Amino acid sequence: MKHAKASTSFRPPENWMQMLEKIRLVRQKYPAPVDTMGCDQVGTSGAKDEIKRFEILVSLMLSSQTKDPITWAAVQKLKENNMCHVDGILGAQEKDIENLIYPAGFYRRKAIYLKKVAAILQEQYNSDIPNTIEGLCKLPGVGSKMAHLCMQEAWGINSGIGVDTHVHRISARLGWVPAKNVKTPEQTRLALESWLPREYWREINHLLVGFGQTICTPTRPKCNECANNDLCPSSTTKAGKKSGDTLVEEAKKEKGVTVKVESTEVPAAAAPTTTNKKVAKRPIKIEPGVKQELEPSARRRRPRLDNS
Asked: Where is this region: Disordered (predicted)?
């Protein structure tokens, strides 16, 4: 499979840190589904570490093309039926798994993937999950985004940025990636990693996913409620509406936040050591052979659950 190439030099906005701080404040004001139902929340308290890691992997595998509440409910149903561990999946009938994870997107194909992955983990990893990006991406139904998030949440390793549709969309809207050259989530990951300090890689997915679920939505984004409406190049806010700084002050009052976000200067305490320097241009290279999280043949209309 051929992948689009992108080779360019890109300089991110000089006020990117200010944008980031404002998104943090907006996220405090507007809780999102990912805050309580994300993959970092699924691990069963008191369970063995390898079982918790498997639960995180399962949550990520089910999350593709599926909203967080549906993914969360599917994982809970697997747990309730003693199936959210390697032996449980291997001992279950594929049809039973389908019924439990429905209506997750592509639930039938995901049931197949879960059976295959469980068999691989038992045979090759002593019923644990791989601890490398390469190992995770070799698993059926696991792509780059899932692998990086799994490394972060299951192993505590900051291997890269997990880029889903929210991170991909918002990065382009904010001008954090060259939108004309970056067309896929994987290209967005490489573009962001080319300039964003590594210390922010782990935070950025959770931050932007929640922001995309509540404010910077795919259609009709709530620019009038966004603290970046005076900075974002894609803002649709019209004159006379509340400015971003006004919204920031409101968010701080509601949550008791004491961090001050200046309109023209990045807070010294929050800025990286290179804040006062221009971020150097770096070439963006697209890695070949990147695996899709769902095969093209799977991207068809979701079938209805059989009446049985």
From this structure: 268-308
